[in-house]
Amino acid sequence: MVKSNNHKLSGTKSGSYDHEIRTAIILAAGMGVRLKERGMLTPKGCMCLGEKSLVEESVLRLLRVGIERIVIVTGHLAEQFEPLKRRYRETVQLVHNPHFADSGSMYSLYCARHCVDEAFLLLESDLVYERRALTRCLQHRSDNVVLLSGFSKSSDEVFVETRDGRLVEMSKHRECLGAEVSGEFVGVCKISRSLFAVMIDAATRRFGATRHMDYETDCLVAAARLMKVSCLVVEDLIWCEIDDETHLAHARSQIYPAVRKADMLDGLRLSERTTASPQAFTGRRESIDTQGGRKAISTKFEPDACNPTQRDKSPGMNEGQREQQP
């Protein structure tokens, strides 16, 4: 339960989640230009599908898996994140990217460099995802992990090429990659202190020429050429990102209800593990549909009547431009 004053969750420091990661960074500086008027009025992370904003739901999920400190990098309409800092004053720290309109996501991450001196989870603020995205990353044996899902056919994918389970390359264009394309980039990573140092070094050497770099396609891929970055594929992960009105409608009608049901069942399984044997929970995970039944869930993108022209999101653009590249 959430305590009334400091919003820390009971039982997260020990017990159910045994891992060393205690910090997370959420990138929330983007301008949301593909959401047009809605994006002009509200940062994507502050939009609500349920009672709480997307970023607050991420905060709560992170707390429930044992994260104790959360750094949110703001930019566009940064003042809208201030209530979150007051509500979770012992947990949430806000860092501002003053060049959010003229920089990429790596510069936002760079702005948080003085706030972390240990391994951390890295997330994007416009994600709708089940808690399992976090637990699988945290439980992975590798120090550096990039989470991948199955193929959504959303027309907005970032495909990931791997070799022997390690990150090789990412691209919006699958044909530009090699034969071993293992899945789609989700936007959830586990970053060690050493990997972060390599990413910061790669970015710093280029900031003199440009701040237009994305953390994933530019710096994370560059770092993977120097050190091992594991790719964790969760084929049936329930998730989506919200970049435009069609994504928002899809998230509201299909993904968000499925995520809530999946999280609820995972919570029940977690509580039952204290009384049941581990053997009771082995086997393949059953999927949850939006009506609560059990079947193979599909996170495939289904266009609807409000579908605008799908647009690419290419690397190297600023926090607004990367969302409107034709």
Report what the structure shows.
- By secondary structure, the chain is an alpha/beta fold.
- It has a domain at 23-245: Alpha-Beta Complex (Spore Coat Polysaccharide Biosynthesis Protein SpsA, Chain A), CATH 3.90.550.10.
- Helices cover 28% and strands 18% of the residues.
- The chain has helices at residues 36-41, 54-64, 82-87, 105-111, 132-139, 193-207, 215-224, 245-272; strands at residues 23-28, 69-74, 92-96, 120-124, 127-129, 145-149, 159-163, 166-171, 181-191, 230-234, 239-241.
- Strands 1, 2, 3, 4, 6, 7, 8, 9 and 10 form a nine-stranded mixed beta sheet that branches. Strands 5-11 form a two-stranded antiparallel sheet.
- Helix 3 links the parallel strand 2 (69-74) and strand 3.
- Helix 4 crosses helix 7 (215-224).
- The longest helix is centred in the last third of the chain and has 28 residues, at 245-272.
- The radius of gyration is 19 Å and the shape is globular.
- The chain starts with 22 loop residues before the first strand and ends in a 54-residue tail after the last helix.
- Mean pLDDT is 84; it is low at 1-5, 8-15 and 277-315.
